[in-house]
Write a structure and sequence with these properties.
- The complex is a heterodimer of chains A (351) and B (296).
- Chain A folds into two domains: 34-137 and 261-315, Periplasmic binding protein-like II (D-Maltodextrin-Binding Protein, domain 2); 138-259 and 330-349, Periplasmic binding protein-like II (D-Maltodextrin-Binding Protein, domain 2).
- In chain A, 42% of the residues lie in helices and 17% in strands.
- Chain A has helices at 2-32, 44-61, 72-81, 95-103, 176-188, 197-206, 217-225, 236-244, 274-284, 287-293, 320-323, 331-334, 338-349; strands spanning 36-40, 65-69, 90-94, 107-108, 133-145, 168-171, 210-214, 231-235, 249-252, 259-268, 301-302.
- In chain A, strands 3, 4, 5, 8, 9, 10 and 11 form a seven-stranded antiparallel β-sheet that branches. A two-stranded parallel ribbon of chain A has the order 1-2.
- Chain A starts with a helix and ends with a helix.
- Chain B is mostly helical and 296 residues long.
- Helix content of chain B is 76%, strand content 0%.
- Chain B has 13 helices and no strands.
- Classes of the chains: A alpha+beta (351), B mainly alpha (296).
- The A-B interface holds A 1-3, 5-6, 9, 14, 17-18, 21, 73-74, 77, 100, 166, 170-172, 174, 211-216, 219, 222-223, 225-228, 338-339, 342-343, 346-347, 349-351 and B 30, 33, 37, 54, 72, 75, 133-134, 137-140, 155, 157, 159-162, 176, 179-180, 183-184, 186-187, 217-218, 221-222, 224-225, 238-239, 241-246, 250, 254-255, 257-261.
Chain lengths: 351, 296
């Protein structure tokens, strides 16, 4: 009997795997003929793209899109695995993975004649070789529980205060937020991407205050909700969406400046739908789509300088030009060193 | 050949159990599937793990050296195996009485108990994991109760601790322990226990000398399922364990996807695979031994 149970489980697993594989095959072949294959990030990103970007693209071009939610690092892996016949035509990337993609020669030059909206982007928001354009930005600062912390924190150094013992949240360096925050700390303390010792010293000093280390930024939100942590670095859109759910959180500006993480869109090399991919990027850069994305509950900062910073974003900047001064990361410098930093962080925070 | 002869020949074939080569063809689709989607990727994984550099140009065993010479890495392996063993132990302690209750109950109650056992399997493990996050959080059910009772003044840290991972994994894996146990307990001839009682043995002695040894095969297959499930439970380990507790599955993901160090990640995966295989072989060996002991 027990053996039968065991076998049955194995068969079920095999069937489930087969099912998963056939779903994967099905979606790509079903849409490959005419619609554009694009990626976005999972969660609120996917939701907002489906709501604003896809209808706008359809209106502008009459074409449909097959949108897949995929983390930038996963997208990178998928593109590397199938260079000759890429699974996507246009992809959304984080800065780090995007630069790795550039190094690997995965992207095609954006035909600027077909993307008129590029003209409205500050020059810093376009790849110097024209291999990608920044379509949005996320801003991070000090997120804190407004019920338990009455005076808004004003500096990353505030996290070291003894009163926050066991209440500070961290996020692993394998996430973009984790690593850019570490660089911001290093810069505040006199270091930079290549000299991170000050940041690691800061974390060592901070450890007695740390209540939890989240394995991804999404988990930070859960930790705030559960009262497990009361203060940490976090993105404005996550904080705003927690507020909507009734969680007493707010974001405050560190005296070393707001942090900025940008997302790009890139045309994949060897795509058969190059013009459509360009049109898709043009839509993503349009005033219409970008201003819709700034609203509740997404709060994605626009990169098009004609888009006003509305609602919660108005408190942070007036236009995308102003964002150029925010704390940013030189990913070119950081990428080759990142694996070593992840390793060092693992050991430092080990329970 | 007349019809009677044909029939006799067919009967002989069926009885002998070998009905020619043709039956083997039936296994071909699954065999091919297995070869392409399991065996080949596994070999590729092994091949990747024997490269010395992240760009995979040179061959060598130094990823394994790098793994085992570093106490941090060894610690990750031990804590993963420890997690598997602890979860299995908890599942045995909680699962055995329930399996016993199931086999001892009337058929009418058996259906109710079976439904209760299977209920958790009907919910996705992601949902169950989030439920545990809510239960174990500082604002969660347990800490609220403890504070309401006045037993503690400040919330006790439960989430993101090794015991939290063990408890939630045990809850999620429990049906996989109970089901094989119940079927092997149910298969025990009731006359054996009756004979034991008739010969003057106590309840406990009967259980210890008769029922328990006879249920060992079920116990072992349950342990196998729970152990392999627990050591590879990526979702529970990361959501309930957090970033400070490192287990092998997340380590593999981190090194492959985030650090882009495929050879090292492949080596970690191979080490986990070999460890699981060793455990499985050991359990199977014990299984055979106990069967021999019971029958011989």
């Amino acid at each position: 009997m027990s053996l039968i149970d065991f076998e049955r489980r194995k068969i079920m697993q095999a069937l489930a795997a087969l099912g998963a594989v056939s779903i994967g095959i099905g979606t790509r072949t079903a849409f490959a003929a005419e619609s554009l294959a694009a990626t976005t990030f999972p969660g609120a990103w996917e939701e907002s793209e489906r709501r604003f970007q896809l209808p706008a693209f359809q209106k502008a071009t009459g074409n449909s899109v097959s949108l897949s939610a995929s983390q930038a690092v996963d997208t990178l892996t998928k593109l590397t695995a199938a260079r000759a016949n890429p699974p996507f035509d246009v992809v959304m990337m984080d800065e780090g993975p995007y630069l790795r993609g550039v190094e690997l020669g995965l992207f095609e030059t954006i035909p600027s004649a077909k993307v008129p909206n590029l003209a409205d982007l500050p020059p810093k928001f376009i790849d110097p070789q024209g291999l990608g354009a920044y379509i949005s930005a996320q801003i991070y600062g000090i997120a804190y529980n407004t019920e338990r912390i009455k005076t808004a924190p004003t500096s990353w150094n505030d996290l070291l205060k003894p009163e926050y013992k066991g209440r500070v949240g961290l996020v692993g360096l394998d996430s973009t937020l984790g690593i850019v925050w570490m660089v911001a700390l290093a810069k505040m303390l006199g270091g930079d991407e290549a000299h991170m010792d000050p940041a690691f010293d800061y974390i060592r000093k901070l450890m007695p205050n740390v209540g939890a280390v989240a394995s991804n930024p999404g988990a930070l939100g859960t930790l705030f909700q559960q009262g497990q942590i009361d203060i940490s670095c976090h993105y404005i859109n996550n904080v705003e969406s927690l507020k909507v759910k009734g969680v007493p959180v707010a974001l405050s500006k560190p005296d070393s400046g707001w942090g900025l993480v940008r997302s790009t869109m890139n045309i994949v090399k060897n795509t058969k739908l190059r013009d459509q991919a360009a049109a898709y990027i043009n839509t993503a850069l349009s005033v219409e789509v970008q201003s819709q994305m700034t609203g509740s509950p997404y709060f994605v900062a626009p990169t098009n300088s004609k888009v006003p910073f509305g609602s919660a974003l108005a408190a942070i900047a007036r236009s995308s030009k102003e964002m150029e001064s925010f704390v940013q990361v030189d990913w070119q410098k950081l990428n080759p060193l990142r694996a070593a930093y992840i390793d060092r962080f693992n050991r430092l925070v080990k329970a | 050949m007349n019809p009677t002869q044909k029939l006799t020949a067919r009967r002989a074939r069926v009885r002998s159990g070998i009905s020619g080569l043709s039956d083997w063809w039936l296994t071909l689709p699954l065999g091919l599937f297995f070869a392409i989607f399991v065996a080949v990727p596994l070999l590729l994984l092994a091949a990747i793990s024997f490269h010395t550099d992240a760009s995979m140009q040179h061959w060598g065993v130094n990823q394994y050296q790098r793994y085992f010479t570093d106490p941090y890495n060894r610690g990750v392996l031990w804590s993963t195996i420890g997690l598997g063993l602890a979860t299995t132990a908890v599942c045995i302690v909680f699962g055995y009485p329930i399996a016993w209750l199931y086999t001892a109950s009337a058929p009418k109650w058996r259906r109710v108990i079976l439904l209760c056992i299977l209920m958790p399997l009907l919910t996705s493990s992601v949902v169950r994991t989030f439920a545990w996050v809510v239960i174990l959080g500082n604002d969660g059910l347990i800490d609220h109760t403890l504070m309401a009772l006045g037993w503690v003044t400040y919330p006790v840290k439960l989430l993101y601790t090794p015991s939290a991972v063990v408890v939630s994994l045990a809850q999620i894996e429990l049906p996989l322990m109970i089901l094989p146990l119940a079927s092997s307990l149910g298969a025990i001839d009731t006359r054996l226990t009756e004979a034991s009682h008739a010969l003057g043995a106590s309840q406990w002695r009967t259980w210890w000398r008769i029922s328990m040894p006879l249920s060992v095969p079920g116990l072992l297959s349950g342990a196998l399922l729970v152990f392999t499930g627990a050591v590879s439970a990526f979702v529970v380990q990361t959501l309930v364990g957090g970033g400070q507790l490192m287990y092998m599955p997340f380590y593999i993901y981190q090194q492959a996807i985030e650090s882009q160090d495929y050879p090292f990640a492949a080596a970690v995966a191979m080490i986990l695979l070999v460890c699981i295989l060793i455990m499985v072989t050991a359990l199977n060996y014990f299984g055979r031994k106990t069967r021999g002991f019971i029958h011989g």
